[in-house]
Amino acid sequence: MRSASSFRSYTTFAYRWEAVLSTTTSFGEMTTPAPISKHAELAEKIISRQIGASSPAVSPDGKYLAYVVTRIDYKVNKYRSQVWLTATDGSTAPRPLTAGEKRDGNPNWSPDGTWL
């Protein structure tokens, strides 16, 4: 059974993770040819806005969180993923560490926390 303090720590982490997700939903505007129909336009809007975050990795000192943000590039029909980094205390805004042209993922910290 978890203690009350470990539950509070987990809950705080979950809320911070949720806040991180809500701030990393923009990769810039995508340009696509004009849709053929209203249905195609609606499909593009729905599919292009599908963004997910996964693979959270907390640094050994607990100061940073690296995670993967994945989106669908509707124009080329491919997934694009970026590794992002943020401070766990919210002191800095999340920022991308990789370009996201391919499927970047699985961030893993070195044991001393100097390398990701």
Helix and strand topology:
Elements (H helix, E strand, L loop, with lengths): L3 H20 L14 H11 L2 E8 L5 E10 L4 E10 L7 E2 L20
Antiparallel strand pairs: 1-2, 2-3, 3-4
TL;DR of this structure?
The chain has 116 residues and is α+β, with helices and mostly antiparallel strands. It is 27% helix and 26% strand. A 4-stranded antiparallel beta sheet has the order 1-2-3-4, with no helix packed on it.
Please state roughly what percent of the residues sit in beta strands, choosing from under 5%, 5-15%, 15-25%, 25-35%, 35-45% or over 45%.
25-35%
The biggest sheet, with number of strands, parallel, antiparallel or mixed sense and barrel status, is:
4 strands, antiparallel
Give the strand line-up of the largest sheet. 1-2-3-4
**Which percent range fits the helix content?**
25-40%
Alpha-beta classification: alpha+beta
Outline type: elongated
